[in-house]
Amino acid sequence: MDQARSTISKIFNGEPRSYTRFNLTQNMEGENSQVEMKLSSDMDEEAVGGNGVGEHHNHVRDPYAVHKPAGRTPRNLCFMVFASLLILIIGYLIGYLAHRRQEIAPRCAASSVPMEESITGTIVETGAAPLMDWSDVKSLLQGKLSDSLFETTFTEFASDSHQAGSDGDDILGNKVLKRFKAKGMQTWKDEHFVKLVAPGSEPNRVTYKGSDLGSLSGYLAYSKTGSAQGAVLHGNYGEVDDLNKLQDKNIALDGRVLLVKAGKIGFAEKVANAAKLNASAVLIYPDPADYTRVGGSTQLYGHVHLGSGDPYTPGFPSFNHTQFPPTQSSGLPTIVAQTITTDMASKITSNLGGHNAPSGWEHVGKLGADSDMVTVVVNNVLADKKITNVFGVIKGFVDPDRYVVLGAQRDAWGPGFASSTVGTSVLVELARAISDMVGNDGFRPRRSIVFASWSAGEYGSVGATEWLEGYLSSLNMKAFSYINLDRVVSGLKKPKASASPLMYGLIQSTLNEVRSRPGRSSPLPLQNFHNPLRLNDPIYPFITFSGIPSVSFRFTSGFEYPYFGTLQDTRARLDAATSNQVAPMAVLAARFAGHMALRLVHDHLLRLDVDRYNAEIRSHVVTINRKVQSLMRMQPQLLPNVLTVRWLMSASGSYSRASRSLSSDIMNSDLEDVEMCRSINDRIMRVERDFLSPYVSPREAPFRHILVGSGSHTLKGLSDHLDALEKSNPGADVDLFRNQFALATWTIQGCANTLAGDIWSMDNLI
């Protein structure tokens, strides 16, 4: 290089007035390098220390801006051209070698970074992480999960007593923490002080016609305490349709004690439905037709809070010394409720008089007469308990501040083998397997994976909900998915899943990958595996309160596992339900959850399908439009002509166009561009959150999601309000409906605007 510069100097009368240097401009995302030639003064030469390779510049000067000196000869011009070509070749070779070193260096650095460094929060890579082939990722995970390892973990985490807030619960939590630490994961605990319920010093009692039905150890947490008396009335499963059939028979529920079967809907929904119709109390029992293997004396346990989390700190977290005035959730029942055994229920049902049961009510004879008097006494007490959530994290290598959460409840009413032990075992085994993949096998997740062990799940996802309430702003736009591991194994025959529509496609593709069943030649069936999302589902607060796309799944035998919520949920009974295939089924469940989690942190784009909500929105819009048109024909005075569904339809169309626009942007984007990829993923992540109505209070209406949440602000709430208007229900209000209608419309439009991206890309026709 120096010899070339000397030649140039001689050409220009021996005076080194200037030299030509080359600048290599490299795109960090791997684009081709550009070589820039420009003239520099002696001052520039000093600044670069005489190197022929300069710094990166954002602007390009004219490389040919050289003033031709006077008196040049053809020979001098030939020398100048030759020297320029020589410098160009040398500079190109230097630039090429520098480019290759920069291209290779990040990958080598990433592969040599210890796990501890990534856990501390250091972003170990500035570009896109080198992708391991997805088939290799699947093979690695499968090779690290085995029946024998799960058997060892079952033995470690099985416990006869680990009720929320107890010593047994804390012992299991410390075992989980120890497992996480053993794999080098960053760990932490999250403590909450909550109000849980326990039986009082005086037992709960139920009498029928003055006769005590027997000893009660089972109870329903958060029931109203005290006593209630009334004539018993059978209400089948206590669903809204069941109670409507009673009203169709002109049977009033006012002051009656409603007797209902367990199943189909949660205990809290049964009690809430009865309270709306002014029943005085609710008794819940296991029907032998549904609980075929449960004995006649089996006691049931559960809760009746129509919500999740600590009902005495609604909408805010139960941290220690939280200085809030005394308050309580609107979801707490206003009537007493108690579970009874099958034998106790038969003493009542076999002696009932009154009307015959409506058609279709199986195993129900008479409904009950006014003389069939029942007294219910509930003496439960509230107790302040400290509960602990336990966490571990595997940090991502490109977007460590974006994470998927895998969680499982740790507590149970009794042994809780199917309800908590299996889920906790799947959680810690996945943490071990994925940690080994990262530490030993070179797997580099783009995003982080958080493993969470929750407490107080049996009381209504208390631990998980308190965490969501405590860190709602921190989780916003960071936690992009939640995978629940509770009750994942209860049988052999078929998979069931409830989820955000955004995750339907991921569930389907994952099931296609893990369809093989232990000991079976036929694969798992994939038909009708979606279950509707219900309020008692552990993922409900994640979707409807926090706007985090979530999935809850389980492998069943085609019927409900009868031992949930009892003290008989043991390993022996789960063995019987799975033909002694508990460990292989746990491996299958771990593969299913692991594949979803790894896919979400492996791919450039999040596997969340925003198009799925198009059908959900359109379905609601069609229903509302049909009911509005019907009401305007039948009772035009209620809804004046100024009310139109046009704007709701327009908002639905805006969302549809925005989702298509996103698909187009993805097709036309360079996904190796880290910032572009992150921008697209941010648009995808906002969808679930933006369906949370911003117009209602999280304290008064915590489940704000307008499509799958609950309350008058939802699209289903609008549809129900139209039904109430048509029936001239006293609670119906036209002005309130119109207000809710407008706010729901703007919520959908707001989601469409965000999905569209930049403000100039929005399609706002309203």
Automatic annotation (TrEMBL):
<dbReference type="GO" id="GO:0006879">
    <property type="term" value="P:intracellular iron ion homeostasis"/>
</dbReference>
<dbReference type="GO" id="GO:0009897">
    <property type="term" value="C:external side of plasma membrane"/>
</dbReference>
<feature type="domain" description="Transferrin receptor-like dimerisation">
    <location>
        <begin position="648"/>
        <end position="755"/>
    </location>
</feature>
<keyword id="KW-0812">Transmembrane</keyword>
<dbReference type="InterPro" id="IPR007365">
    <property type="entry name" value="TFR-like_dimer_dom"/>
</dbReference>
<dbReference type="InterPro" id="IPR007484">
    <property type="entry name" value="Peptidase_M28"/>
</dbReference>
<feature type="transmembrane region" description="Helical">
    <location>
        <begin position="77"/>
        <end position="98"/>
    </location>
</feature>
<dbReference type="GO" id="GO:0004998">
    <property type="term" value="F:transferrin receptor activity"/>
</dbReference>
<dbReference type="GO" id="GO:0031623">
    <property type="term" value="P:receptor internalization"/>
</dbReference>
<dbReference type="InterPro" id="IPR036757">
    <property type="entry name" value="TFR-like_dimer_dom_sf"/>
</dbReference>
<keyword id="KW-0254">Endocytosis</keyword>
<dbReference type="InterPro" id="IPR039373">
    <property type="entry name" value="Peptidase_M28B"/>
</dbReference>
<keyword id="KW-1003">Cell membrane</keyword>
<keyword id="KW-0325">Glycoprotein</keyword>
<dbReference type="Pfam" id="PF04389">
    <property type="entry name" value="Peptidase_M28"/>
</dbReference>
<dbReference type="InterPro" id="IPR046450">
    <property type="entry name" value="PA_dom_sf"/>
</dbReference>
<dbReference type="GO" id="GO:0033572">
    <property type="term" value="P:transferrin transport"/>
</dbReference>
<keyword id="KW-0675">Receptor</keyword>
<feature type="domain" description="Peptidase M28">
    <location>
        <begin position="389"/>
        <end position="584"/>
    </location>
</feature>
<dbReference type="GO" id="GO:0042470">
    <property type="term" value="C:melanosome"/>
</dbReference>
<keyword id="KW-0472">Membrane</keyword>
<comment type="similarity">
    <text>Belongs to the peptidase M28 family. M28B subfamily.</text>
</comment>
<keyword id="KW-0564">Palmitate</keyword>
<feature type="domain" description="PA">
    <location>
        <begin position="243"/>
        <end position="298"/>
    </location>
</feature>
<keyword id="KW-0449">Lipoprotein</keyword>
<keyword id="KW-1133">Transmembrane helix</keyword>
<dbReference type="InterPro" id="IPR003137">
    <property type="entry name" value="PA_domain"/>
</dbReference>
<protein>
    <recommendedName>
        <fullName>Transferrin receptor protein 1</fullName>
    </recommendedName>
</protein>
<comment type="subunit">
    <text>Homodimer; disulfide-linked.</text>
</comment>
<dbReference type="Pfam" id="PF04253">
    <property type="entry name" value="TFR_dimer"/>
</dbReference>
<comment type="function">
    <text>Cellular uptake of iron occurs via receptor-mediated endocytosis of ligand-occupied transferrin receptor into specialized endosomes. Endosomal acidification leads to iron release. The apotransferrin-receptor complex is then recycled to the cell surface with a return to neutral pH and the concomitant loss of affinity of apotransferrin for its receptor. Transferrin receptor is necessary for development of erythrocytes and the nervous system. Acts as a lipid sensor that regulates mitochondrial fusion by regulating activation of the JNK pathway.</text>
</comment>
<dbReference type="Pfam" id="PF02225">
    <property type="entry name" value="PA"/>
</dbReference>
